[in-house]
Design goal:
Elements: H1 10-14, H2 19-22, H3 60-65, H4 71-82, H5 87-93, E1 94-95, H6 99-102, E2 119-120, H7 126-140, H8 147-164, E3 176-180, E4 188-195, E5 198-205, E6 208-211, E7 215-218, E8 225-227, E9 230-232, H9 236-247, H10 251-257, E10 283-284, H11 290-304, H12 311-321, E11 327-331, E12 342-346, E13 350-358, E14 365-373
Parallel strand pairs: 1-3
Antiparallel strand pairs: 2-3, 3-4, 4-5, 5-6, 5-7, 7-14, 8-9, 10-11, 11-12, 12-13, 13-14
Helix pairs in contact: 4-7, 9-11, 11-12
């Protein structure tokens, strides 16, 4: 029998760090906005407790309707999703291009963060779900434990929480998709997808990927969990790759890489755009041996691998070219397995953070992580 973890208060779920986001007016509002009436705990009408396991969704009809590959298929699938959709849903799915809307993402569940845009998976019909899944697969790739497969496992985590807690708002049906700008051969648009512990921001310009960041990934529980007919451990490979890069450092290099502060969360997470330190800290990759640089590259690839090839290859070529001036630092322990363990990779363009958080529902710890690009977030638009 599965243990059900009882949640007695919103602060026990999210911790005191959630206060600014929880105190929002019912229609949303910027983080930190006051709410004289106290905490807002109700969900928008389109949020449900409906599980929408993508693993069981068939994409065959979508693939047959859009037989091309790459960007042409992505554009075809976007048009297919809108075709025959109720006008009210199309109005929420297809929005004008707006960096402001693109920035409306969070690691918080919908119970707390209300500003996400788009339609929820729970509002889509079975054929429409097949198209939405095909869009995610085409944009992010189909490698095991990366890209689309990682997204599916993170959605499964919300269904696990839904089944094993008394807290409302967790469900795979509550993740949202939007097109910010019209997918077309010319022009700029962003594929927006997100919900609890995930934010996908992929910006396209004139038929080519301009940016895959900011990209947030987290998961709870962090142990292997069974949900929706499969075992899931979506960020285990990222933790292992980062820990391998840190533990390979010599004692002297680890001492140099250690940050003096304790980091309890990401510093460039949601609503923290451009919150980068003025001075780089830690060890410089250009001063490391080739084998240690290779481990660092392998860790970076775990995030860039969430983008389909050949776009991922283009991004990795840029980050490899800047590797000598990329810095590695951490606080806590190099194993990245304990509460407040933290890692940072800071390059001329690349920014990666990995932070181990206390369990909010399931005892233990769980990770938050973010990939940003200093010059290319939101397609380089601000």
């Amino acid at each position: 029998m599965i243990k059900r973890y009882r949640i007695v208060a919103i602060l026990s779920l999210l911790g005191s760090a959630s206060l600014a986001l929880a105190q929002q007016p019912p229609g949303g509002g910027p983080p930190g906005g006051g709410n004289p009436g106290g905490f807002v705990l109700k969900l928008a009408p389109y949020y449900t407790n409906k599980s929408t396991p993508l693993g069981a969704v068939d994409t065959g009809a979508a693939d047959r309707a859009c037989k091309t590959q790459g960007y042409a298929k992505l554009q075809c699938l976007a048009d297919l999703l809108k075709k025959g959709m109720a006008p009210a849903l199309v109005a929420r799915l297809q929005l004008p291009y707006s960096v402001e809307d693109g920035k409306k993402w969070s690691n918080f569940p919908p119970l707390v963060y209300h500003d996400r845009v788009g339609v929820t998976l729970g509002e889509l019909s079975a054929p429409q779900l097949g198209v939405a899944k095909a869009i995610l697969k085409e944009a992010t790739g189909i490698a095991a434990d990366e890209g689309y497969d990682e997204i599916e496992q993170i959605l499964n985590a919300d269904d696990f929480l839904k089944a094993n807690s008394t807290q409302i708002g967790f469900a795979s049906g509550n993740f949202q998709m939007a097109f910010l700008g019209t997918p077309a051969a010319k022009g700029t648009w962003q594929l927006y997808f997100g919900g609890h512990h995930i934010a996908l921001s992929m910006t396209y310009k004139d038929g080519a990927l301009a940016s895959a960041t900011p990209s947030f990934r987290g998961v709870e529980p962090f142990t292997t969990y069974n949900a929706n007919g499969r075992d899931n451990a979506p960020l285990a490979q990222e933790q292992a790759a980062f820990a391998a890069a840190l533990t390979a450092l010599s004692p002297a290099e680890q001492s140099k890489a250690r940050l003096p502060q304790t980091y309890t969360d990401l510093i460039a997470g949601a609503q923290q755009d451009d919150n980068f330190p003025a001075t780089k800290a830690g060890v410089r990759a250009g001063d490391l041996s080739p084998d240690k640089r290779a481990l660092l590259i392998a860790a970076i690839e775990k995030y860039v691998g969430d983008v389909r090839r050949p776009d991922a290859d283009t991004l990795m070529a840029k980050y490899r070219g800047e590797l000598a001036d990329t810095w590695l630092s951490y606080s806590g322990t190099p194993s990245l397995a304990a509460e407040n363990d933290y890692l940072r990779i800071d390059g001329p363009s690349l920014w990666l953070e990995f932070s181990m958080q206390p369990g909010r529902i399931v005892p233990g710890v769980h990770p938050h992580s973010v990939w940003r690009d200093r010059g290319a977030d939101y397609g380089g638009n601000r």
